[in-house]
Design a protein that fits this description.
It is built from four helices and 17 strands. With 310 residues, the protein is an alpha+beta fold. It has three domains: 98 residues, Sandwich (Immunoglobulin-like); 89 residues, Immunoglobulins (Immunoglobulin-like, Sandwich), CATH 2.60.40.10; 48 residues, no CATH class. Strands 10, 11, 13, 14 and 15 form a five-stranded antiparallel beta sheet that branches. Strands 1-7-6-3 form a four-stranded mixed beta sheet. Strand 8 and strand 9 form a beta hairpin. It starts with 5 loop residues before the first helix and ends in an 11-residue tail after the last strand.
């Protein structure tokens, strides 16, 4: 009965939006009942409309008190509601309803397969009103009614945007699915397909190894061989020079003899390595030749006699 008032109401609501006038914010979890109270004093002749022009669904009713009652709200119930009486629009009666839901479907979900593994990549289009707790991904053979295999880890961190899938079969098509979860539960599932690459056989590997051989310039190979041979020649010459210098260095034996003479000279100032007669005899020596020291002291030999006592 108020259809003729709708154009006028929408015009006033548009002006209120342009002027930046505020409206009340209301948030509700999906599946709950919601009651919106109309701030208009006189409850007679109350009318509720949506600013987006959508008609109120059947699960939305206007109570005798003028309030708007929504049974088991769903995603489509989000929007701005306006409470009016006859042809009077009160901007303070505008209520923005936000329905919090599980996360919506992920966007830009793609699979980049290789031979035995695949990379699953995704983006987040929304969180449903609550922070995302984790992601879950699974896979199975495509077009086969088999059980899903979880992709490790079972609960992917909320900051991740890709995950690798291992132990796949080459040249095989797989079906992947992934979803996000918040405190309201599991979000919308997104399914994608991907086919792994062929496994290279020996002939294929040889063919890829010799790709471009016909276009190879032999001059480049000759230059590379010349550089390597020149380096080896320089190393050989350097080694010969070091060996030549090593052969003309005085032996170490003379230095060792000089080092051995130093303690003898310190202990015996009259020590002459070239005069064996002036050396102090060893206490264990059995030489019978008398020796003369520097202070003209004569040292007589001491003969060791061994006797047997019967």
């Amino acid at each position: 009965m108020y259809d003729f008032l709708r154009p006028i109401v929408y015009f006033y609501l548009f002006l209120a939006t342009v002027n930046g006038q505020n409206f009340t914010q209301v948030a509700v979890n999906i599946g709950r009942n919601l009651t919106l109270k109309c701030p208009v004093h006189h409850t007679s002749g109350i009318m509720w409309i949506r600013e987006d022009g959508k008609t109120l669904p059947t699960h939305v009713t206007v109570l005798d008190s003028g309030s708007l009652f929504i049974t088991e709200v769903d995603r489509n119930d989000s929007g701005i509601y306006a409470c009016i009486r006859e042809n009077v629009v009160n901007s303070d009666a505008r209520i923005n309803v936000t329905v919090k839901t599980p996360p919506p479907a992920l966007v830009d979900v793609v699979v980049r397969p290789s031979t035995v593994l695949a990379l699953l990549i995704w983006k987040v289009g929304g969180d449903g009103g609550y922070p995302i707790i984790n992601f879950t991904a699974q896979y199975r053979l495509a077009y086969a009614n088999e059980n899903w295999t979880a992709i490790s880890p079972n609960h992917i961190t909320p900051n991740s945007r890709q995950i690798e899938v291992y132990k796949l079969l080459p040249n095989t098509t797989y079906e992947f699915r992934i979803w996000a979860t918040n405190q309201l539960g599991r979000g919308t599932i997104t399914n994608v397909y991907g086919k792994t690459l062929n496994e290279y056989m020996e002939q294929e590997l040889a063919r890829h190894l010799f790709d471009g051989v016909e276009n190879f310039d032999t001059r480049v190979w000759a230059v590379a061989v010349g550089v390597v041979m020149g380096t080896l020649i320089l190393l050989g010459l350097g080694t010969c020079i070091l060996l030549y210098r090593e052969c003309h260095v005085p032996g170490v034996i003379e230095e060792q003899e000089i080092i051995e003479l130093v303690p003898n000279i310190i202990l015996n100032p009259g020590f002459d390595p070239h005069n064996q007669n002036d050396q102090i005899p060893d206490e264990n020596s059995n030489s019978e030749t008398p020796l003369r020291l520097n202070n003209n002291t004569v040292v007589q030999p001491r003969n060791t006699q061994i006797g047997f006592i019967l």
